[in-house]
Amino acid sequence: MQRAEFWKLMEESNQASGGDPDLQADLLQSWLAEYLPEEILSFDKILLELMDESYTNELWAAAYILNGGCSDDCFDYFRGWLIAQGEHAYNEALRDPETLASVATPDDWEFEDMLGVAMAAYEGRTGKPYPGAERPAWQLKGEDWDEDTVEQKYPKLAAAVRYID
User: Fold this and answer.
1) For 116-124, what is the mean pLDDT?
2) How far is CA 147 from CA 69, 77, 100, 102, 144, in A?
């Protein structure tokens, strides 16, 4: 599987689910189960690459603002949610996390199930345990930020969250 196919699956599943993460996970799992096992593994490899690319202090600051705090696990689930929004939202958020203000409408910016979709699809397709690798040791990129001043870093996001609340 190439990234273009990966992103096509993200776009179509997001649109078909109406943004409902549970439904999107179910759709992705059932669609992926139709692929060859090697393609499912490739999907997961791309997902892990995107998780690595998005492991930045800037996005963590954005996730912190949107979630009112954000642990390590929360940040993983946030990045799963971001990837599930599609290529455009993902790339824009990497370029400028303030662009998330335009998609800051859900009650929850976490999508834990996204991280296990390939494993479930693989096991459903093959009846065998998933042979995928453990989560890599990602290296956090970007400038550190302070919890007390993070809203000043991304005022549009902070305002969007106040508007939603």
Assistant:
1) 94
2) 9, 20, 19, 23, 10
